[in-house]
Amino acid sequence: MQVISGPATTSATPSFVFQPVQLYDYQPLPSQSQCIRLLKLDPDKKHSNGALSGKLEVVDLQSSPRFSALSYVWGEPSNPSPTISCHGCHIDITPNCHDALMALRKLARGVPVWVDAICINQRDTSEKETQIQLMGEIYTCAKTVYIWLGRDDQSGSARKAIACLKLASQLCLCPVGLPWHGDFGWKSVLKDRIKLFVGAYSLRLAICCGRFSLYVS
Questions:
Q1: Mean pLDDT of the chain
Q2: What is the SS3 assignment for 50-97?
């Protein structure tokens, strides 16, 4: 796997702290390439109070890197915004992205993850347009695509949604069609939240809602 650490060095993560604009300048994506950034989440540290942190690295899709990808709804921002610390730089993320990353920190088990809100410089319009064109390849090349449906609640909707999706996967309907009506006894299960669009050739899907998850090969 080819890893591109930055324009001037391939050494380990530098000791100085980046500002948000400097973080992406340090790890630019070469033009006319299939390079993307990946997020390597740090494990939950004993004295971190659950704070998210990680490191970014640049890889070339043509070198077949091993990584996973996250599919989720950004959701509404909050004030103050949750953050993730990358190379000491605090990046604002939405609460739904934060919840997804908290779950992925355990599920991904050290495998780098592609997360659009973090791996793409959201302040660079040109970069966003280029990376959006690569999203099909990204989801296709990912070892696992994690589909985050949101937090669990007290109604048991997460359990019902996962059961419904499990049935759909067994019927080879996922993600094309979902049996919203049937013997389960409910008319709609998180119907407004489950809008799935994932690369059709992904090797593995992991559908996650709160503490529940379902793997579909």
A1: 77
A2: CCEEEEEEEEEHHHCCCCEEEECCCCCCCCCCCEEEECCEEEECCHHH
